[in-house]
Amino acid sequence: IPKRPIPRLSCVEAQDLLGHLMVVAARTAKAQGLEDGYRLVINDGKHGAQSVYHLHLHVLGGRQMGWPPG
């Protein structure tokens, strides 16, 4: 848990925090049975569709994803 609030990705200063988020996301995906793959999403700011201003990421999986997203 960060010592200070981090409202969005563009405010991150510590790279080790981002690595930790990725590792936890990978563990979460594995625990959810997403062995065939998954997508990680971090929304940043108004134009990035961020609605909760606290740094977090989304683990999306369980179906084939398309490209481009959105």
List the helices and strands and how they pair.
Elements: H1 15-31, E1 38-41, E2 58-61
Motif (Histidine triad motif): 54-58
Protein name: Histidine triad nucleotide binding protein 2
Pfam families: HIT
Describe, in short, the structure shown.
One of its GO terms (molecular function) is catalytic activity. This protein has one domain (9-61): HIT-like (HIT family, subunit A).
Task: Give your account of this protein's structure.
The chain has one helix at residues 15-31, and strands spanning 38-41, 58-61. The protein is built from 1 helix and 2 strands, in the order H-E-E. A two-stranded antiparallel sheet has the order 1-2. The mean pLDDT is 92. By secondary structure, the chain is α+β, with helices and mostly antiparallel strands. It has a single domain (9-61), classed as HIT-like (HIT family, subunit A). The chain is flat. It catalyses: adenosine 5'-phosphoramidate + H2O = NH4(+) + AMP. A motif (Histidine triad motif) lies at residues 54-58.
Q: What's the count of strands? A: 2
Q: What sort of overall outline do the alpha carbons produce when their principal axes are compared? A: flat
Structural class: alpha+beta
CATH level 4 superfamily: HIT-like
Helix content: 10-25%
Order of strands in the sheet with most strands? 1-2
- What do the pLDDT scores average to? 92
Q: Biggest sheet, in brief?
A: 2 strands, antiparallel
Distance between the termini: 30 Å
What's the CATH topology name? HIT family, subunit A
Taking pLDDT < 50 over at least 5 consecutive residues as the criterion, the unreliable ranges are none
Total tally of structural domains: 1
Radius of gyration: 13 Å
Order of helices and strands: HEE
CATH class: Alpha Beta
The total of helices stands at 1
CATH architecture: 2-Layer Sandwich
Strand content: 5-15%
